[in-house]
Amino acid sequence: MRGGRLLRMLAALGLTSAAVAATGTPAAAAPQPMGRCTSTSGAVLAVDFSHWGGPVLRSCGTTPTTGYELLNQGGWSTTGTGHDGPAFICRIGYSGFQRGRQYPTPAQDDCVLTPPASAYWSYWHADPGARDWTYSQLGAMLYKPKPGSVDLWIFGGTDIQGTEGRPKVTPDQLRAHNTRPQGDAGKPASTHKAPTLPPDADTGPAPERRTPPPSKTVSPQQKQGPRTSEKPKAPKPSKSPTGKPSTPAPAASRTGTRVVNAEPAADAEHDAGSLLPVATGAGLVVLIGGAAGYVAYRRRRAG
Amino acid sequence: MSAVARTTVAAAPPATVPGAGGRRLPRTLHPVAWWVWALALATAVSRTANPLLLFLVLAVLGYVVTARRTEAPWARGFKYYLYLALTVVAIRVVFRAVFATGITPHDHFLFSLPHLPTPDWYAGIRIGGPVSLEALLSSATDGLRLACMMCCIGAANTLANPKRALRVLPGALYELGVAVTVAISVAPQLVQSVQRVARAKRLRAARAHGTKALRGIVVPVLEDALERSLRLAAAMDSRGYGRAGTATRRSRRVTGALMLLGMCGLCAGAYGLLDATAPAFLGLPAMSAGAALCVAGLRLGGRRVTRTRYRPDPWSLPEWAVAGSGVLSAVLLFANLGYDPAQLNPSFYPLTWPGLPLVPTAAILLAGTAGSVAPPPTPAPAPAFARRATTP
What is the ipTM of this complex? Predict the structure, then answer.
């Protein structure tokens, strides 16, 4: 009785708070072809599948967005863990890579508990102009990539000192280098929009307001061809003590880090499964429960 | 002569052939068999987060407990384990709702809790906010898994006689076992004592409510407990409890040192196995060295205690069958043979009906056969056949 009233009060409280709370502006994040990202606009998402023999896939999304939204649009999809919810990225898949299979596979990690620190998707950022990666201090749902930044997900282990498990590619290999959007500039970029968030959805701290510099002041280094990074380049060890600007060396390639552009694709179809197993399971439970009830009844009558 | 032969023929089949309409002789199963069965089932449960399989495990536990529990005080507690399980699920769901784990645009929005803003340096933790159906369902399943494991332990506690279970301890731990037996029989004895005093008060038409009435119950109960423990101590003393026997001081010291070192080794081994960054020698080597030291200490300590056993519990076919059915179900759930491992841990993001993989279902039903394989603990409720068999 009291519990019911408490529940009703809680529900009423929740509803009023939902009504009162200012609804945030609906996120207008959208997937884009890679050419639409420039050095000052759009956020580049890169996922390293080299652990499973794949390339580093690179795609582009509009800002403002969250790291989670970047990973769940245009054919990308993630799975959380049963323990932590969808905010903990346990599996990542892209519909254009291995037919949308998500990695690590269920045989490698069941994604029930938080994965171990020796084998998980670690999250790295490179702000515009940054030459090295920084380990994300926020989760994918809370972090808001800045325009012109790069988000990288790599699978493996890291340690607390930050000496192990750093990315082998440099931000410059993945960054968009063109100064203005390429390709289908005229038409709207894509129709694969993320649905609007529910009211009062917490999307984390606001992104830093950054005034985009006028395109005249772009440094000559950024004026390379639009797709230079498509060719394999020498991955520069990011732990270089002298932070020299990475000069792109088109020769001297190293195997293992292929960068491939992942164009926006339709999301994989979701199959809601069949009701038959649930009915069978419920029938079995009722059957065994009934047997237990019958045994208890006979015992009570006899005793 | 012929009469003797006739009675043995008439009495023998019910004891050995459980199938042919006969009833087996009631006896309690070896407690270790129940514990092996329950722990194996708990291990199997730890492998899956499929709500269908978890509910099936709960149903199987309920059936086996109702069919094979005794009427002893400890055998009536299974429903309290079920309440505890319900509490675990509720706590898990509430925590998941309060410490929001984020909502995605594809989720089914249910309601929103007031959001407590946290400063930027604490942005990793969110309190309150929107709650989705998916979050509640997955947290309830997660809680249900823990609840199922607790119910497995509860079933073992209900089915196995704790006093007889302590008998299988090695001789060196005999004194510890006696202490534990005394400790676990305190609560039922207190309850009995309170009931007796309350009944006596009612018979004398004394006041049944208020602080005075409470004092009238507490004081006699405490007096009763003190008297009982003094009697127990005298009885244990007269039976030679705590005597050092023929052990010399040196052998006792060696035993103590072996046990201490062995325990340290076990602790270090557990730490090394769980922490991936620990040095390699801390893992299995330390674990096995610790176990060896412990076994040596127990052997050495057990040598000075000679105990005879009155009516030892037999370990025969039903014991093998019960323990084996539990172990086999755990093995089947860990073997990953004949089914998709993803079906053991279905995801609720996006909402999907869970599947019912065939092999794990069969494994859990196999564990449920313990309810009929084990001998009945009390005489059968239908006495017709028994009467015919015993009175020829």
Answer: 0.73
Q: Give A84's DSSP letter.
A: T
| Closest CA in chain B for residue A116 | B276
Percent of residues, chain B, with pLDDT higher than 90: 30
E strands, chain B, in order: 109-116, 127-132
How many percent of chain B have pLDDT more than 70? 86
Q: Does the pLDDT of residue B5 top 60, yes or no?
A: no
Query: The domain containing residue A88 runs over which residues?
Result: 25-270
Residues A196 and A301 in one domain: no
Rounded to a whole number of angstroms, the distance between the first and last alpha carbons of chain B is: 15
Mutate which: A69, A275, A295, A298, vs B, most B CBs within 10 A: A295
DSSP state of B309: -
pLDDT band for position B92 (cuts 50, 70, 90): very high
A residues 18..47 contacting B (CB < 8 A): 18, 21, 27
Assess A206–B contact: CB distance below 8 Å, yes or no: no
Residue written as token pair 């930027």:
B120
Q: Are residues A264 and A281 in the same domain?
A: no
Average pLDDT over residues B243-262: 82
Give the pLDDT of residue B104.
78
Looking up residue A237, the CATH number of its domain turns out to be 2.170.130.30
Q: Where are the domains of chain B?
A: 21-165+317-390, 246-304
If you average pLDDT over residues B256-268, what whole number do you get? 91
Task: Give the Å distances, CA to CA, from B84 to A83, A172, B90, B91.
Answer: 20, 56, 10, 11
Q: For chain A, what is the domain count?
A: 2
In this complex, the residue of A14, A85, A274 whose CB is nearest that of residue B101 is A85
Determine the distance in angstroms separating the CA of A234 from the nearest CA of chain B, rounded to an integer: 32
